Amino acid sequence: MAAIPVSELSQAQKDELICTYSALILHDSEADITADAMTSVIKAAGLSVESYWPKLYSSMVAGKDVGAILKAGGGGGGGVAAAGGAAAGGAAGGDAGEEKKDDAPPEEEEEEMEFDLFD
Asked: For burial by CB atoms within 10 Å, which of 6, 14, 62, 72 has the most?
């Protein structure tokens, strides 16, 4: 949702974000994530949500290790794609002598740019 302007979100989506952020604030503060605590954080921020949202969120994380959930969430950024494995012997199929055609354009050399910041 970070790539979508808040003005384009539905009220339910805004409420979900507000509750998510309040739960994260409580977790970072090492406080219990309860409906009352979430409501206090939300009100302190000058915001409001439907009364069922904090109850729903607090019941979802009750008894769970929020830190472990956050660590399992991915870790950000995409990685480099792994290269495919080499073909096995001749019985694996395909023509071993056939080469893959390279359609990529040749890369430019840095020397050709001749750009100097201090000239």
From this structure: 14
47: which 2 tokens? 């915001």
- SS3 at position 118: coil
119 in any annotated domain: no
Total domains, the chain: 1
* 35-92 pLDDT tens trace: 999 999 999 999 999 999 999 999 988 888 888 877 887 656 655 556 555 556 555 5
CB atoms within 10 A of CB 15: 21
CA distances from 22 to 32, 58, 85 (A): 11, 10, 46
3-state secondary structure labels for all residues of 33-71: CCHHHHHHHHHHCCCCCCCHHHHHHHHHHCCCCHHHHHH
Residue 20: which CATH number? 1.10.10.1410
